[in-house]
Amino acid sequence: MFFASSSPCQRVYSDLFPGIDLWVKRDDLLHSQVSGNKFRKLKYPLMALQGKHPHLVSMGGLWSNHIHALAHAAAILGYASTALIRAADGMDSAMLEDCRRLGMQIRYVGRECYRQLRDEPDYWRQCLPEVSPQHVWLPEGGGSPAALHGVAELVAEVSTSIGSCPDVFMLACGTGATMAGVLAGAERKSQVIGVAAFNNADYLHNDIKNLLQQAGYPEYDNYRLLTDFHHGGYAKISSVLMSFCKNFVSQTGIPLEPVYTGKMLFALHTLCMQAYFPERTRVVAIHTGGLQGNRGFPYSSSLMPVMNT
């Protein structure tokens, strides 16, 4: 059942994270094809549409985890869907091939158009040949206020798995919706540390505040946003980061991608080596998935665990 998805919380023992008790919330295992927490963000926006037979419309890049999840969700629920993809006509990816097989329509938009989609709430209407009352817009990355309610449920799952709310939640940040949702679910019981996956990310403070307000939650200040672990920018990958990711996969058997979760775990490793946390701090690192994106890069096989036969 799409709306009943949950994921395990795995205890991790590794010398990469000295001094803390670490668990990884395995949202990469939420669905057999959709790797990540995007289903959490889609849960309540899509529940609100049940019985309405909508045509879902959203935006993303050639390897968008959100678009990939949306295509699966639409297929599961029997909804039509269209993706506005930032790319030149004819550009393709394995992710887009998946989406087409699931029945999603793909429309390409240029950089300027994509920028307007971000800046103007109703601009998406101009990117479709026709718009009907059935067309429903979902924002980039699934970062709507309603998305926070689905993400907030992750906190209760973690508390049940490990017996209590942890001292710290650690997660990667893109739109800020996952961080806002965890803050809402934790209700100040835990510190939340977010790691921006791209440079110049200070504006996320304001986005997190606005998402919480629009979703009906109070403003929380029990978080820290780390903006210096982007390794050059979005989808930029350093040799140090890759070496760390390979080491992590080798030690734990947990698959990684270096665009989001890899950067978050590298930041956690750095904090541990700096003795940032008090001894025996209970930390839950949220694996937000996105593993399907590895298919577009030559390093992909090195970040998947080797299975014994």
TrEMBL record:
Pfam families: PALP (PF00291). The modification N6-(pyridoxal phosphate)lysine is found at residue 38. The keyword Cell division does not apply. GO terms for molecular function: D-cysteine desulfhydrase activity. InterPro entries: ACCD_DCysDesulf, TrpB-like_PALP, TrpB-like_PALP_sf. Keywords: Pyridoxal phosphate. The active site is at residue 64. Residues 19-289 form the Tryptophan synthase beta chain-like PALP domain. The keyword ATP-binding does not apply. Its cofactor is pyridoxal 5'-phosphate. Belongs to the ACC deaminase/D-cysteine desulfhydrase family. This is Pyridoxal-phosphate dependent enzyme. It comes from Undibacterium jejuense. The lineage of its organism: Bacteria, Pseudomonadati, Pseudomonadota, Betaproteobacteria, Burkholderiales.
